[in-house]
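#lab-general

N.A. 3:47 PM
ok so I finally got the sequence cleaned up, no stray characters, all 72 residues accounted for. can someone with queue access submit it? mine expired

B.Y. 3:52 PM
send it over

N.A. 3:53 PM
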Amino acid sequence: MELCGKGAGVRLSRAVHLLIDRDAGTVDMHANPDPERGYYGDTHRAPFGEEVTLPGPVNITLDTGILKNDAR
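B.Y. 4:20 PM
back already:
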């Protein structure tokens, strides 16, 4: 999966990016964007059912267990 192509650093303006993949049954969290390099410095993938902690400025922990009901 490519978040953005080379030179598309403008798209990395969000501090935290969360992707819910119902087909794979996972949550991908991307944080610490580096617009000059065009990617997020921190990534974490968790299966549905695992807690996912989003860093600042969001600073919350998500219980992804409820997402199991929406998995394909």
